[in-house]
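User: I'm putting together a teaching handout on how sequence relates to shape, and I'd like one worked example. Could you take DegV family protein from Listeria fleischmannii 1991, show the sequence you're using, and then write out its predicted structure as tokens right after it?

Assistant: Happy to. First the sequence, then the structure tokens directly below it.
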Amino acid sequence: MSKEKIAVVTDSTAYIPAELIEKYQIHVVPLSVIIDGVSYKEEVELQTADFYKKIKETDSFPTSSQPAPGDFISLFHSLKEEGYNKVISVHLTSGISGTYQNAVSAGASVDGIDVIGVDSGLACMAQGTLAITAAKMAMEGKTTKEILNHIEMMKNSMDAYFMVDDLNNLQRGGRLTGAQAIIGSLLQIKPILHFQDKQIVLFEKVRTQKKALKRIEEILEKAVQNNEAEEAYVIHGNAPEKGQQWLEELQKQFPTVEFHLSYFGPVIGTHLGEGTLGLTWSVK
């Protein structure tokens, strides 16, 4: 039986730092964000900081689009030429995007390389952590089966919660009705969202940002007690100082957890808006 040579592919909504993409040889297919009728591949043609600037200068609401199957087909062909015979392709939750489905269909149409799609059921560094782990394990010579089993175990213990600062994006993106958004801003409601059955859904409505973050900390505390949180990412929507401050507070409260700072890039930022803070955690 031929020895497996495994490549790991993900999409840009994992928001993995460039140095880790390089270190673990992860292949990234970008999604696009459309502003004023112009489509930009996120992190390729439009960097995150420029995205948040651009949306302040436009009256139209940005939208996002998934990679075309052709983008995946050409990547899988080039991986095959480099001698890879297996691909583990880890993607944004299928509940909010067709990216995973496009990767799977593209994989089925390329002969000579076996593409296994992984629907993360998540986004951002929650998805990124799965891709990084898969790539690390592939480098260590683990088999496809061992990697997939481990990722499945991680998915079961992973969680991600977001505190949305401005309800307008959720409302305009069709995630909340107009009335709910208006009432929310009048009453200073900060919705806490999380992933459930692959969708982003309301977890709780909390008054004030401080209370919302405190509530997320309570959920993390339970996960730490259950040994389900060894590594965590604070994720911010163009609010690095706020993110860093929260990270430092969390690090003091939970010294056994390794915290890192991450961000919501253009595609996810389109839906959640500026000022959003999120927290995701997993076992190592």
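A couple of points you could highlight for students: The radius of gyration is 19 Å. Residues 6-31+66-155 form a domain with the Rossmann fold fold (CATH 3.40.50.10170).
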